[in-house]
Queue: 2 jobs
Job 1
Amino acid sequence: MKKIAKSNLSALFAKINETKDLYVPVKNGEQVNFAAYSEEAEVDLTALKTVKSPKDAFFPQSENLYTCFNEQGKISITPEELQDKDFVVFGMKACDIKGIEVLDKVFLSEPVDSFYAARRQHGIIVGLACDKPEESCFCTVFGINPAEPTADVAVYDDEDFLYWNALTEKGNALTETLCDLLEDADNTAVENKKKEITAIAEKLPYANLSLEGWNGDALTEKFDSPIWEELYKPCLACGTCTFSCPTCQCYDIKDYNTGNGIKRYRCWDSCMYSDFTMMAHGNNRTSQMQRFRQRFMHKLVYFPANNDGMYSCVGCGRCVDKCPQNLNIVKVIKAFEKGGKA
Amino acid sequence: MQKIVERAKELLADGTVNRVLGWKKGDMCFNPEPAFFETAEDLDENFVYGGFCGANLSKYMIDASKLEGKTLVLLKPCDTYSFNQLINEHRVDREKAYIIGVGCKGKLNIETIKQSGVKGILNITENGDMLNIETLYGNTEMKYSDALLERCHVCKGKEHKIYDELIGESQDTSDRERFAEVEKIEKMSPEEKFAFFQKELSKCIRCNACRNVCPACSCRKCVFDSTKFDSSQKANTDSFEEKMFHIIRAFHVAGRCTDCGECSRVCPQGIPLHLFNRKFIKDINEFYGEYQAGADVDAKGPLTEYTFGDCEPSIVKERG
């Protein structure tokens, strides 16, 4: 166990940034999101949840795949280079780290996604234990411990110090490079902090949410339920839930016309959008009810069916906080538990 | 609230309406959701109307107008402007709506409460002019008027512009100058303006919540959803596009936007989108005379009517 005075954090960030790219939670107006570190950036480690999840660091909202260029009838194709520089994402929470495990299942299984794999190889995650879990948090329902981020380094914020505990080889290597700034510490403060977090986590309003009945075998029963018809109606079909979600992984591939060529890029897609999975023959989901159902079926039924029971929701609660009309996965789970309207 | 439920049940029972469009209790006190009710039992069990029922239900009436029979819709004073505008644009059917104008003393913004530093909210109760807030980390309080949505600080007044009947008292909650923020930006240099909007719009994640919630954005198919259009609706491929989406949207709703403020309410990134619309409203007021979209159901919009008194395009040069 190591520690560093919080007053000295900018030195730590600067040191990491000397040799690596560094992403930290940065405040812009009233919102906090992960962004590249700079001296001017207003780093905010107190915000529990960034608006967007940090999955951007491994799976950016939009990224070029290759560029085609037409010069007098001769077409050249330049593939985008893969990530080859180490980078650190500082301050990821336990739920968001679990979110990366979900993405791994998708992008690191055959055929491996080379863009994602390169970022995973070069990415070092410094996880920050949740100082003050909030009412919309329900990570514990998915077996996640907000006091134990399963990162390369687990960090704990306790009054004047950040406690630093390397957990992996990558974490040890990073710690080595920072040995001038980190000092040895005992475990007492961190153990107390963990107890504090666990005590709050037990009191969270969604702590006892039951996932009973949601599994890979529930496909037909859930899919055919009339409850979806009741639930989807207030949905605006915006992408707030999907774009703030740490596990939503659907993407679209498009061409951007550069005048004398194209940039082929991929960008996050949203099952809420009208052209989601649109193919040459048309769209296999033609109503908002079907698209709304897709989101929850994917997270709670299809994904566990294909991944040994692993849900693709991590209970971060961003959709709970951010849905403009206050719909969310918790309400869906509760509605099914209740069996729909009276 | 009980009066609304009782009246809604009467109207359902006597067959005046087939359904009720209102708000359903959330699983927390601050997250009610828009909902349709078809039975008295459902109303008794699930209906709610309170400080967090900020959602403007007018736009849901586009779809409800296509349903069998009438829909009882609950509209707050400012929502009625949106409803009028939708009638004016032939997007909703007045005959398919039974409107109860519900009282409003300003609606609360949970984001504002959280941004004041309140964490782990378990319950919020009204106590006169105050909100008692119970949290995982102790209790606190806040003035009701400090937790209002931005739009309530520039309230258009307590009058419902269209209704069949009224239930409840309303208050004019305006305590800020409507165009003050716009005037501040007008005084900036072009470079400062660019930097301001660049900073705000670069936060955009293209979730389209602003567009989808907007009662003026009622096109059946948005150009940004077209698969044949070069610009994707899902990502900002460059910094020009992130501005283009919002600027095109602002132009498209110019003269039709009632300033209902839903765009700013729903933006997950807190972009003050209402500023674009309010700038257009201010300019329209200056060039064509005072005009409030949705105030009069039969009004001709200043940008869709031509008069000899209209300003010439050269006004752009004269104004600098």
Job 2
Amino acid sequence: MIKKIALVLMLIAILITFSLTIQESKEYLDCFSKDYFVSKTFRETGSKNIVTGIYLDYRLFDSIFEAGILLVVVSGIIFMSKKDEEVL
Amino acid sequence: MNPILSFIVVLIGIYGLATSKNIIKSIVCLNITQTAVILVFLNFGAFHGSNIPILIDKVIDMTDPLPQALMITAIVIGAAITALALMLSIKIFHYYGTLDWKELIEREG
Amino acid sequence: MIYEEVITLKTSRILICISRLLYPFMLLFGFYIIINGHTSPGGGFQGGAILATAILITYFIDPDRITNLNLLIKIEKVLFILILVIGSISFFTKNVFFTNFISIESSTTYKKIFLIALNFFIGIKVALGLVTVFSTFIKEGRS
């Protein structure tokens, strides 16, 4: 019981810290990257959907190896589903 | 929506992760935490009455497209982690015959 | 004994009929989302998830339809290498890895070719991966 009360107190402390950070960081927010993407994405990548323009052109490295992660996970699941005699 | 409200859901997920006694419940809490983190990131770029980031006719009042493009990665990796954790829990159940954290720790020594 | 009951569980005929009716439309919707990923909401990953659900609905129609999992993962590996090659073509035209291989001054109609091709391959790859994961879980539950 004491452990749970301590855990709840810890989580409340994290919440207060997070909300204070949000309040302070509102002064420093800017829209620089958003303005850049809105004004130049269609000319530079040819896509009207800005999200597709970002993940298939500006950050293609990220999305290609994300597909690689999916491939590795599927291979691992097939490996784990085999019995001990079937493994090489 | 406020980012603080989404962060409360993150904390609920962490609480469940710390106090759950079954492996399946732990996986469910992991999913709750991951989805809530995605909500927090989406709430930073959005404001009330904003449009989707697609250049159809109105360019004004658009949400920030960068967090949305990053969160696609997070969603796919979350699905992969969930599948891997479920497969591991199936293997643990076949080997030990139980899914309770305390019994597993006692049997392992 | 629990597993034997799961095997003999029968799906109702209404569900089978509705699944047969719905299957081509779900495939069509998934391909629409993938092909139009550069002008409307959607894209490779989202359309791939829809395609995977459309293929997995065949488990209601015929539970023994998907058997060859090794072929599926072989196709997935080939598609991943193909995506890597398409991403690396830009090294020969622009000297930079992983961007669009058409030069930045050309018109936007030619640049769409890269986006459509990459969206298509990523969509099929994600769909095959999710189908393989789900089929492996079903095989694990039956054994």
